[in-house]
Specification:
- The mean pLDDT is about 90.
- Strands 14, 15, 16, 18, 19 and 22 form a six-stranded antiparallel sheet that branches. The chain has a five-stranded antiparallel sheet with strand order 4-5-11-7-8.
- By secondary structure, it is of the alpha+beta class.
Length: about 475
């Protein structure tokens, strides 16, 4: 919740205030993904890596490492995540790539039949590339990641479809996901993580395998509160490092009037005007309220039998939908393209009542009506208060097509039981997803969804309330 901005009486009736406020709101919505990417780069780039130590002279330094993988090693459980709606199905492989010195080669291992994906975001949060099971397969090989405008020779190893990805921006955020089938599978996934590496193209071609890790200055702390002048400064830095598409030039030209894209001295001179400073403060509060609204109020989503469809990019980007781009950057940054994964959510039952632990619910998938996917699906439960996993006596946070011991109905269907107290029968307990005592919601993760899931023709069953 943002604090209300009080308009001084001498400014309230100024005829230019509504125009400047609207112009500033448009600029903030456009630039919000850049702001979030800067914050995430500072938050998720490693301060220290094995064999190199800290990037700076202390853990408090703003220097970080880039051009190297950082791997999550344990499946997330209740109380172990720093981000909301954590994934309990996969281990993450995180990397920030700086292409200012030329292309990088990603060297990837054979993964057998295991699903994995490395999702690549440009600095405007467009998911411009995916490497893995769906696109390049599970065999060992290399992927060339080249910067904007690069016209060099592509090595033979990277000439197959999907093996050369051209980044629209200098900086790239890679968020990888490797499927894990429980704690006994962790060692195998760790071996795959350890076999991933990053190299400069010239080093790779020369046979050198020393890695490409280098230091960079993150410049600011990720937890800095939003403040209009700071926002414009941060975004100005990002625009210089990651020039926008040529087609955005006209938009950026008009936003110079409120300081976006100006040099520091010019920007400070503009912000010294009380009218503009106040318009920016109002627009900043407007933007945060807009981007924090529930997804279904954005206009892109509508409930379908209790389920809110996944917010989707338009393939490898957002097109002209700048509000959707900013909204996902604020609420779900790092989402994969819908062809790779979708995430519908449900917080109400079949009668549109809030899901809560004082009741018990059944989700019944009729025969042949399990979520249609080409990789895997799972249903994860989160506490509505903090959007985190819920501690429970059986240490189960998600349930899906890989859950061992599921009991199917006599007709081949599947009934899942979602409730706080253990179900009465052994069969129901085998299919139990524990809930908290209070309010909660469900998220379905569908990886490599089939067309019926993408076009809405497949409908998820709503939770049926069986006790009150």
């Amino acid at each position: 919740m943002t604090d209300p901005v009080i308009t001084p009486p001498d400014i309230a009736d100024h005829p230019e205030l509504p125009y400047l406020r609207g112009l500033a709101l448009e600029a903030i919505i456009y630039a919000w993904p850049l702001y979030e990417m800067q914050r995430m780069r500072s938050a998720t780039s490693p301060r220290r890596i094995a064999g190199q130590g800290f990037a700076g002279d202390s853990p408090e330094s703003l220097l970080r490492w880039c051009n190297c993988f950082v791997h999550e090693r344990e499946l997330l459980r209740a109380g172990t995540s720093r981000v909301v709606m954590p994934n309990n199905d996969t281990l993450y492989a995180n990397a920030w790539f700086d292409l200012s010195e030329g292309p990088l080669v990603l060297d990837l291992p054979e993964t057998g039949s295991r699903y994995y994906v490395l999702g690549l975001l440009d600095f405007y949060t467009n998911p411009f590339g995916h490497v893995g099971t769906r696109t390049t397969g599970n065999g060992a090989g290399q992927v060339l990641l080249s910067p904007p405008g690069w016209r060099g020779d592509v090595p033979p190893e990277c000439r197959a479809p999907g093996r050369h990805l051209r980044s629209p921006t200098r900086w790239v955020w890679q968020i990888g996901r490797l499927l894990v089938d429980g704690a006994d599978d962790l060692a195998a996934v760790h071996a795959l993580q350890d076999a991933m590496s990053v190299h400069r193209l010239q080093d790779w071609q020369a046979g050198r395998r020393d890695g490409a890790a280098r230091r960079f200055d993150a410049r600011h702390e990720p937890r800095e509160p939003f403040e209009p002048a700071r926002f414009l400064a941060r975004v100005g830095e990002a625009l210089l490092e990651n020039p926008p598409p040529a087609g955005d030039a006209a938009l950026l030209a008009q936003w110079r009037r409120i300081g976006l894209g100006l040099a520091e001295a010019e920007r400070d001179a503009l912000l010294a005007r009380p009218l503009l400073a106040h318009a920016l403060a109002l627009a900043g509060a407007d933007a945060q309220r807009l981007l924090d609204m529930p997804a279904e109020r954005l206009g892109h989503d509508e409930r379908r039998h209790g389920w809110i469809p996944s917010m989707m990019t338009l393939g490898d980007g957002f097109g002209d939908d700048l509000l959707l781009r900013a909204f996902i950057a604020r609420q779900g940054i790092g989402a994969l393209a819908p062809q790779e994964a979708i995430y519908p959510r449900c917080d109400t039952d079949a009668q549109a009542r809030q899901l809560e632990g004082g009741s018990a619910y059944r989700l019944r998938f009729a025969p042949g009506q399990l979520p249609p996917v080409n990789a895997f699906w799972s249903l994860t439960l989160y506490d509505s208060r903090d959007k985190m996993l819920v501690d429970n006596v059986i240490d189960r946070y998600s349930i899906g097509d890989r859950t061992p011991g599921l009991v199917y109905d006599d007709d081949g269907g599947l009934t899942l039981h979602v409730q706080h107290l253990p179900p009465a029968t052994p069969a129901a307990r085998a299919n139990w997803l524990p809930a908290p005592e209070g309010e909660f919601f469900l998220c379905l993760r569908a990886y490599m969804p089939e067309p019926a899931m993408l076009d809405g023709s497949y409908r998820l069953p709503p939770p049926q309330r069986i006790t009150s």
